[in-house]
Amino acid sequence: MLRVVSKFYVSRSLSTAADIFAGLRKTKVRPAKRVHPVPTYGGRHIVTMLPGIGSGPKMMEYVTDVFKAAYVPIDFEIIDINIEKEDQIKFALSSMIRNGVGIKGHIPQLADTSANVTLRSHLDLYVYLVHCKSYPNIRCRVPGLDIVVFRQNTEGEYAMLEHESKPGIVESLKIITRENTERFARWAFEFAMNECRKKVTVVHKANIM
User: Fold this and answer.
1) Which of the pair, 75 or 206, is modelled with greater confidence?
2) Which residues does 25 contact at the CB level (< 8 Å), separation at least 6?
3) What digits encode the pLDDT tens for the residues 22-44?
């Protein structure tokens, strides 16, 4: 369901960056304030499901099969998104806000719009988290792997601010704000401390723009 990072361009240890976040060891990660209560009916939970296209519908089929086999008390509200219809994206957003949790397959993007970016920005999903972990007794290429990858998910190129100023000349704006950068870094450091991680490493891809 989540993409695995395959290449790191530049990385450096942020051993001194802990000074910037002095006092964090006394802080705990505060859960996000819920605007709507979690909808439960008869002890069951409702989860928004966006199958998408390509391999997405098949992946979602496997998810529902596993949940049924395990008797997980979850019902899926399935929404098929047509990326060319704005009202369907709004309907998906309303469903995810109402239910409080969602799962999605692959949703393609058009040349000038992206349903994925729309969902991230409207829901303020500024942290993209991938936990890469190998398990005992399962053959894998890298035994003993246990890495958590965070990615800033709403700024930079994800601002989708591009235009053709004149024929043959295209401008792309890379928007980065101090407020969102600080809260993203704070989230990563708080996660590391609460999960007893020893180091936080920063990775950037400044070379792509």
Assistant:
1) 75
2) 193
3) 444 444 444 444 545 566 666 78
What are the structural domains, with CATH classification, of the chain?
10-208 (3.40.718.10)
Residue 99's φ and ψ, nearest 5 degrees, are: -85, -25
For residue 208, give the 3-state DSSP assignment: helix
Residues 6+ apart with CB under 8 A from 158: 117, 120, 121
Cβ–Cβ under 8 Å, residues 84 and 111: no
Q: Model confidence at 113, in pLDDT bands (50, 70, 90)?
A: low
109 forms beta bridges with 114
Residue whose entry in the numeric block shows the structure tokens 């705990």: 28
Write down the number of H helices and E strands in the chain: 4, 10
**Whole-number Å distance between alpha carbons of 186 and 66:** 35
* 132-141 residue pLDDT tens: 999 988 888 9
Checking DSSP bridges between strand 156-166 and strand 74-78, what pairing results, if any? Answer: unpaired
Identify the CA nearest to 122 among candidates 92, 151, 147: 92
Strand ranges inside 79-168, DSSP E: 102-104, 127-133, 146-152, 156-166
